Amino acid sequence: MREREVIYLGAARCFTGEGSGMVGMHPLFKLVKFSPKGYKYVMPDTLEEEKMRISMKNAMGEALDEEEEIAQEIMEFRRKKLEIEMGKFVTYCEANGISKEFYERYFRIINLGRRGMQIPVKEDTLSLVPSFLYCLQKTPWVIEIEDVVTLFFPFIQNGKQPDGEKIRNTEAYKFAEYMLKKEECLGVIAHVRSTVDIYKALFPNQEIAGKIHYIPMCCEEVPPKEVCHTYQKSFQGKIRLFFSSSWAGPNFIVRGGIDILVAFGKLCGKYDNLELVLKCIVPNELPEKCQKILRKYQEKIHIIEEKLPDSDMAELMSHMDIFLIPSARIHVISILRAMASGLPVVASDGWGIREYVQDGKNGSIVEGRWGKTSWIDGAGMLQEDYLIMEEIDEVYAGRLADKIEQLILDEGYRFKITKQAMEDIQTRFSVENWNNEIGKVFEECYKVLEGKGQVIKDSRK
Q1: Cα–Cα distance between 351 and 349 in angstroms, integer?
Q2: Minimal CA–CA distance to 233: which of 320, 311, 310?
Q3: pTM metric for this prediction
Q4: Edge-first strand listing for the sheet containing 239-244
Q5: Are 297 and 265 in contact (CB under 8 A)?
Q6: Among 60-64, 108-112, 455-459, the least confident range
Q7: Residue 458, Cβ neighbours under 10 Å: how many?
């Protein structure tokens, strides 16, 4: 049986440039190098290169060969279809109180207008969209999200979302509703179960609600099974606490960096062999107490600001002892990579984290974020307040220090949760499990297309 292609749109320009947060380059989407059985991910860069070559030949007055002429006809055909879709969207906006400023901004973000759509897609091929609804083209697609706020990006952003009642009156909500109702939208995949509940509360219409699927995220960095069952790392000499910021930029504060510094200061009074490794950019503007800790323990605190390739990052983590992520909310890839590296994880109870870290089983949870930095409002909408993270919370920092100390003192406990975490990477959070489940979604999508007679042949075949 021939493998079906699934186009990963994250490689397209609008997902890797200004305004997108470069979401197409998120570590989550490195998983496209692993294809579900019967499917093959492809990147949409070939046709874009072809388009550029044809444009240059036309500009220089050079004749196109037969294949290039066919490709030019196909691109022109798609451009006209896209113009029709743009027209439908404008009509919807004007009829539903969505401003011209809104839809023109959207067109700019996804590179529409005079240059045409910069996403070369095939008429009969499913596309996988990363997080943001940058997919107006009339071709079938599935979107993968972490939380529902990304469906409104960039018009509404995390930490600044209105409540569940007010959000329904925003232009961004009406836009998302339009996109999710489109027959081209065949599925929404969420790797946080809470997102499924929030999504269904926000979009109760069955036409939209019935499209969502839950699949736990996986980690591509899986230790061998024999390592998973025998890995027991005793603390000898120095004990290195490890903290890393986001793959995309400075996130020291929202990942709990301030409370980590305070907790470290508390523990240094008891343990001379403690060190803190910060793989991040530490902001200059920090509370005075944090500045004093940085100065006082500068020989014990190591800061790595440079971005590291995956191989160097893995090597660095192999020399660490405890992974700290007392963040405002979930950072799933960081958590799973730490688990796979054999590091006991100390995380917060922020939104989504308990779905991956169970206190006392495969990690340690520090309570105190839920209800403050993240919560679900009365209308079922995720809310977040990141400003709280800019101030020292002495109570929380004390709880964090206690959890770290428990791992230092209780080797049996540390071995138990580390072993379970590594086993979870092999099972619940495995690439195999992810591919099995996402493959089922793709299969459902193609059945829908075939049932409607919408799977057509590309004219180049």
Answers
A1: 7
A2: 320
A3: 0.89
A4: 301-304, 274-279, 239-244, 322-325, 345-348, 364-366
A5: yes
A6: 455-459
A7: 10
CA 126 – CA 135 distance, rounded (Å): 12
Residue 13 CB-half CA count within 13 A: 15
* H or E stretch covering 383: strand 382-384
Q: Angle formed by the axes of helices 394-409 and 257-268, to 10°?
A: 60
pLDDT digits (tens, 9 = 90+) for 279-310: 999 999 999 999 999 999 999 999 999 888 88
More confident residue, 138 or 302: 302
Query: What are 418-459's pLDDT values in tens digits?
Result: 999 999 999 999 999 999 999 999 999 988 888 766 544 443
CA distance 218 to 410: 29
Neighbours of 292 (CB within 10 A): 13
Contacts of 323 (CB under 8 A, 6+ apart): 242, 243, 317, 338, 341, 343, 344, 345, 346
SS3 15: helix
First to last CA, the chain: 17
- Answer whether 384's CB lies under 8 Å from 341's CB: no
